[in-house]
Design brief:
272 residues, alpha+beta, 28% strand
């Protein structure tokens, strides 16, 4: 069997102190590794995003640098990538997070086990999604081991519900806000209600930037519900994403183990 036909187990790493994690390599993951090696840190934008990430105080062994990927316009054009792919089983459109830089995370083996045994197809069969978050939430989420529901304990405190979208104080009757919310759209996930911009000064250049953070993830098919936007201020007729309509742009689940984080995304723009 060729290398691309096997399951690969990469180096190990810790999600947080005391927890060992193995990385599994599937055919799709191997292709990503090869492409990422050609591109890693050749771009000033990616280096700048890396400097920001390094200031978050994250453990090195949370990351898998071989799968880092820059989606800035220059790197995207050089690779000759298309913008929209089909991912998962059943397949759903996956739009590249253009304008962002991805810092790959170690993929924990227990989360990619198939229900009836086996691991080879798990990573490739789960569907792509995004989760926007605040800069200050990145470290607690990673130290806790993944996304959690409002009210759950995370490193440093309890996860609260933010304003700007449905919460216990403002929601339709019967709507359950105590879930994990993700989206197939990076445009939606980077809205201020999820990924509020943070003003950051690059110590290397003195330039100030508006920085947003998000997670790239896979979600297990059949584990989530598809619903409309829960943002407060979306006017009727204003379409958020050209691929996903406003009535299917928010995915929710109570199963925190159904979401596998595999990339920290960072986007920055110069302050005017």
């Amino acid at each position: 069997m060729s290398e691309l036909g096997r399951s690969y187990y990469g180096r190990t790493g810790r999600g947080h102190p005391g927890t060992r994690r193995d990385t599994i390599f599937t055919p799709g993951l191997v292709r990503e590794v090869r492409r990422a090696k050609l591109n890693r840190f050749k771009c000033e934008y990616q280096r700048r995003c890396a400097r920001f990430r390094d200031e978050l105080g994250l453990q090195d062994d949370l990351f898998f640098p071989e799968r880092d990927m820059c989606y800035c316009p220059s790197c995207h054009e050089k690779r000759g990538d298309i913008e929209i792919y089909q991912r998962g089983n059943p397949p759903k459109p996956y739009v590249l997070p253009l304008g962002w830089s991805r810092f790959a995370l170690q993929v924990p083996l227990p989360q990619v086990m198939l229900p009836r045994g086996g691991t080879v197809a798990a990573f490739d069969s789960w569907q792509m999604c995004f989760h926007g978050t605040l800069k200050d939430n990145v470290k607690p989420i990673l130290e806790t081991g993944g996304l959690r529901r409002p009210g759950d304990d995370i490193s440093g405190g309890t996860l609260s519900q933010r304003n700007g979208h449905f919460n216990e104080e403002w929601k339709p009757e019967g709507f359950d806000t105590l879930q994990v919310f993700v989206s197939p759209s990076i445009r939606y996930s980077s809205k201020d209600a999820y990924s509020s911009p943070y003003t950051w000064r690059d110590r290397a250049t003195g330039q100030k930037y508006r920085v947003r953070s998000a997670f790239q993830a896979r979600i297990r098919p059949g584990s989530y519900s598809i619903g409309p936007t829960t943002l407060h201020h979306v006017r009727r007729g204003d379409r958020i994403d050209p691929i996903y309509g406003n009535d299917e742009i928010e995915w929710s689940t109570k199963h925190v183990d159904a979401i596998m984080l595999y990339g920290l995304l960072i986007k920055m723009e110069p302050c005017s």
